[in-house]
Amino acid sequence: MSSEKLSKVLRSYVSDLKDRNVSKGDEMIITDIIRAKGNKGPRYFIEGNGKKEFLKMNSNSYLGLSLRDDMIKAEEDASRKFGVGPGAVRFISGTYNIHSILEKKLADFHNKEAGMIFSSAYVTSMSVIVPLTTKETIIVSDELNHNCIINGMKITRPAGKAVYKHNDMQDLETKIKESIGKAKRLLVITDGIFSMRGDNAPLDEIVEICNKYDSEFEEGIISVVDDSHGVGAFGKTGRGTEEYTKAKVDILIGTLGKAFGVNGGYVVSADAILKYFRETSPMYIYSNPITVSEAAAASKAIDIIESPEGLKILEHLRKLTVKFRQGLKDAGYETLDGEHPVVPLMVRDTQLTSDIVAFLTENGIIATGLNYPVVPKGSEEIRFQIAGDHTESDIDYALDVLRKFKK
Predict the structure, then answer these.
(1) What pLDDT is stored for residue 1 in this prediction?
(2) Does residue 373 have a cis peptide bond before it, meaning omega lies within 30 degrees of 0?
């Protein structure tokens, strides 16, 4: 059979990845959870590790909402009323009132005219970039943008593409000036929070530069930010990088699967732009939406974030983030300055990264080691992610384990 020939080639490819120590390997499988109790946050059981408890420090669920009883109840109530799946794509009969309510809430949350939900944030980014890109468009992108932006650019056929040095506003301005006269429309695209490093894009400066040269393009310069790691976890009230930098971009992409603790992606922008996406984004038109129950849980998450309790969770998250980042420095480790709960421990060596991750695992801590090609050579790191359901005791324990490794 021809598949046998293909299987041989693919086995060889995967084997080569393992030999070069760049494969992702087998997936960790979580089998059970112990809810937060006393001075301990949630603990997880991992397949193959018996009754050993693990502290999870690599979760995108920044506010720790996914285990809350009120979130679970919102999802269960919607499932009982509407079932577990939407049963169709949006434009046929897959749109339920809870989907529309969530889209309105997201728009209001970000002070935009309209909102639109997708099956994931990855899909959202690609579904924004592709319809916006014509043969008379130039795309300008930060060099450290997420893979979804990179792949969105790859499948487009614009008049040109340019990549500016990470957060280098002078280089961005140069790339824009070089594009004048070569296209009608220009897209400037950036992550809000760069997920490997935890640093943020200077959206205020980016918007200022876009406005400066907007008149040079017949269809203008459109600022696009994917703030999936920022929304809900960054800024005083959780509005993300826009709030932190006091800026307003044209198009904002977010996720329901990180700080909101659920699943799915979304975009908020001007009403005319989103009506265009509903007619032209193939991954929206031909894919089922998130379930009604997921939409109900996400809607509940927004209610929590906007409440006094939500502000307390955000304050707690910031406090723990400062404590952990300073603790790394005091223990003699290198990290990057910032206020986002992604706290990278910069190792800059593949084998040492693996050794530290193994030591953490032995001591019941789950953390993510990032090696080449996920990050450039020399930028190997361990990405820690602080969450709202962590406790001060959890942070103390993690720092103590890291100090022990030093010895």
Answers:
(1) 58
(2) yes
